[in-house]
Amino acid sequence: MGRAGAGPEAGTVSLVAPRPPYAPVRGVAGAVVATDHKAVAARTLATAFGFFIAGGVIALLMRWELATPGMQLTSRAGYDELFSMHGSTMIYLFVTPAALALGTYLVPLQVGAAEIAGPRVNLVGYWLFAFGGLLAWSSFLARDGAASAAWTAEFPMSDAANTPGSGMDLWIAGVMCATTGVILLAACQLATIVARRAPGMTMLRLPVFTWTMVVTCLMVLTAFPSLLIAMGGLALDRHGVDVYPGAGGATAYQHLFWFYGHPVVYVMFFPFVGASLEVIATFSGRRVFGYRGVVLSLLAFAALSMAVWGHHMFTTGQVANRYFSLTSTMLAVPAGMEYVAAVGTLIGGALRLRTAMLFALAFFLQFLIGGLTGIYTGSPPLDYHVHDSYFVVAHFHYTLLAGSVFGLFAAVYYWWPKVTGFRLREGLGRLHLALFVIGTNVTFLPMFVLGYDGMPRRVANYRPADGWTTLNLVATGGAFVIAVSVAVFLLNVYVSWLRSEPAGPDPWGGQTLEWATASPPPRLNFTAPLPPVRSAEPLLDLRGVPTPEALP
Amino acid sequence: MSAAVAATQDDFSRVQAVYIPVGAAALVVVAGAFAFALVRYRARDGRAPRPTREHNALEALIALGIAIVVAVLVVVTFGTDENEARVRGRPAFRVDAVAFKWGWQFTYPALPGVVDRTVRLIPPVLHVPAGVEVAVRLSTRDTTHAFWIPDVRYKRDAWPGVAQTFALTFPPGQHISGRCAQYCGLHHADMVFTVASLGRAEFAAWVARARGRRPGP
Hints:
The complex is a heterodimer of chains A (552) and B (217).
Chain A: H1 27-33, H2 37-66, H3 76-110, H4 119-137, H5 166-195, H6 208-238, H7 246-261, H8 263-267, H9 270-284, H10 291-305, H11 321-330, H12 332-346, H13 355-377, H14 380-386, H15 390-420, H16 426-452, H17 469-498, H18 538-542
Chain B: H1 8-40, H2 56-78, E1 93-100, E2 103-107, E3 115-117, E4 125-129, E5 133-140, E6 145-149, E7 154-158, E8 164-169, E9 173-180, E10 192-198, H3 200-213
Parallel strand pairs in B: 1-5, 4-10
Antiparallel strand pairs in B: 1-2, 2-3, 5-8, 6-7, 6-9, 9-10
Helix pairs in contact in B: 1-2
């Protein structure tokens, strides 16, 4: 099965629907019931971005509180609500749904389908996510305040005795609701990839981004139900059913939670690897290097990711630390192969450093710091010291914010003209990037030192004698630089929209099928016959770029 | 105390001495590769991109290289004891540490009646002899907490319903800081304590004072 083999399907194929679509519903009702995967994806992304802003405002409040010793902004109870809502908003309501939203938009286009599989299920997925998010945030209205047991809600800290109040119950319901929605979004994409591929689009001709969505959806479908079970049990336990009794109960909750809680890290990573690799390939002007190696390493990565959850539990004394240390460290091999693909694509290319390209490059370099410190914390003797300290706060922000969110912005700048029909400004884009790079590093590099020096996470206060004031002040300054960079992005959107210039179907010299249709694509995605699919980059075939197999 | 006893801080340093250079080297290699490509392969003067070729052997070789580095790291990590702070033999001194919302209670089996305890959020002092193996038996009265002493590079969760015992060797020092590292609610940040790690003579003097102070039978 060669990705370049010219099979019997060679030639042009028409996927144009034989009948016109049903009349669109307009107005508010239209916004509620529109099943077009592009509209659902745009709404998911916009909603997730709204939660990013909300979670970011919370982060600024937290950094303001921590800038100097003493309590200056919140109460202790208030701070506990803030960090709990910050973490849960960013993970459950921003990065995870945003990662899936990219796939909801792009997967049908990239595989040459007119519509996503299960469009109504897909739409329900969005509404469950949006409603769940609002439900979780409504906990701020509860009499005892919002959820305050951290994003992990570890038992028994999250039980009715330690975290009383309906805020926690609302939060649990919201998280379960939003997570169910995300599972539905993933199911529709995977079904589309399995069953709606255009003629000629074999599995080994799927674009790299779509491959990352294959493994992402597999992880969502296998790991996320475990969160529903953990949280469902927690809800029951808080209302009188003994689900997690005694020492075994606390351990059982953590196993269930982290069986979801580690794969979700890669759900928040793979789609951005895929997006960044496609951006790098397009702006290098050549095919991704080592396509099959990327696919193989993604599959290995996803499989291994199901067997590493215990590294979150090294200090509990309740798991086989050596086993989880071994599996966690082994992740370096598939992760390394993604970097080989990026570098191999760059070398030999003709690099155009547009904003999307710069974000993709920054994604790989910034994430590297998160990845390498992940290998470090994967060693129990080292983790015993840095676990639950600001060191791990720095580590996972390098993977999620300094990493994934850079990949998300690479995707946003790259596919923006496809989605809206106009481009974002380059100058403001570069300013956004520069401020974001400065902001994330100034915020999170000092946290490695603070954690190493003994500052625990999830504290509202520290003492002047601890000697952490200067670095905390620096980190707070960095957080406000990040805020400014996000404001520059919003300004860029506004300015580019105000005086928009049509981008055309393919402004960057794209390689995959979504660039072979209008911007924005019509209701059923393609009006002209699809180009023949003889490789993972059908538009490069049209331009006569040889596949690796065709080269001597 | 046998000479073979490995202190947690020594294990930490030994492992970190391998991990830090390996991580730094990886950072330099990858950043260097990106920098090289950015300088050498910029689109200018009508340069055309070269068509991508397969280099399966090179990829396999790199994967093998990374796997070898992983193997080295795992061997170094496994070189420490599986339960690195396991109590071996007879510890020189024993401490019973009980965590609660929000404070610590330290008692000493060899010194019945002597209690160092958080009172109204005022941090207690844990007294131990310096430079010898101290066995800490950790438990909790309510939710999970964690016993963390940054100077000995070690923490362990206080787990509901089970007591966990581990051995630490403290460097000398009157003001070694310790704290709770596992989020436990309102006064988590205030759940700190001080370790007074005392030399032979100082420790004997503290024992005498503590015995004299304890309430009579």
